[in-house]
Amino acid sequence: xxxxxxxxxxxxxxxxxxxxxxxxxxxxxxxxxxxxxxxxxxxxxxxxxxxxxxxxxxxxxxxxxxxxxxxxxxxxxxxxxxxxxxxxxxxxxxxxxxxxxxxxxxxxxxxxxxxxxxxxxxxxxxxxxxxxxxxxxxxxxxxxxxxxxxxxxxxxxxxxxxxxxxxxxxxxxxxxxxxxxxxxxxxxxxxxxxxxxxxxxxxxxxxxxxxxxxxxxxxxxxxxxxxxxxxxxxxxxxxxxxxxxxxxxxxxxxxxxxxxxxxxxxxxxxxxxxxxxxxxxxxxxxxxxxxxxxxxxxxxxxxxxxxx
Length: 308
Description:
By secondary structure, this protein is an alpha+beta fold. Helix content is 44%, strand content 19%. The protein has 14 helices and eleven strands.
């Protein structure tokens, strides 16, 4: 059948079907339709010539290179092929996980931090403009109301909603969840709700302080802020201004008193410990299983071995 073609086939090529042999003997490239037809039978280096169906670019790629594509059913150029693959949910999820893994490396975090710090040092005007814009945004009534009634948490730690006997309560840390779970057991506690928001001034600028909880009971109405001692001492530079504002708010009748709860003071104040160790946190989440909805699936996988 192919005896009239002068070029000879090597022993390996003799195993191909007649249509593939004809293309090889004629010395021409495959068309894309032939690529689709023969991709399960041929994997050599003969080129495939076609025009990209998305941008119209002329393409000439080795047959075996096209076979390595994630999506090889459409005649697309390399650039359009990458766009097509990157638009799939599977690729986005894989890329997201890879990026999170890389960005969590201490060396990468340090490098990113140094780059950001360098940028702001070299561009003080841009930093001032950004700070001014953010302050203006957060002072609008719409933004204040949205933050006050938020359902999710923007931090990277454990957060979610706990179905307490007083209704659904948002928690933004293991400490907060531990506090709610213990306090709802107390017979003298009649109600727990998310705390109010008060205005305060720091370095001449207006801010809002969203207090964690308002606890009501036989002891009166108690404002409670739950925070780790490390964050309190090393990260919350506004704590003095916040405390002064809370003191004034209490004097004006917002509540009967205010207490700042840390893992060091909770035992003396309320008679129980906040979950500081990994095991204590696992025990806490086991006790509240079925009553917690996390804001991130990674914590459901961590504590319950599954994601909803």
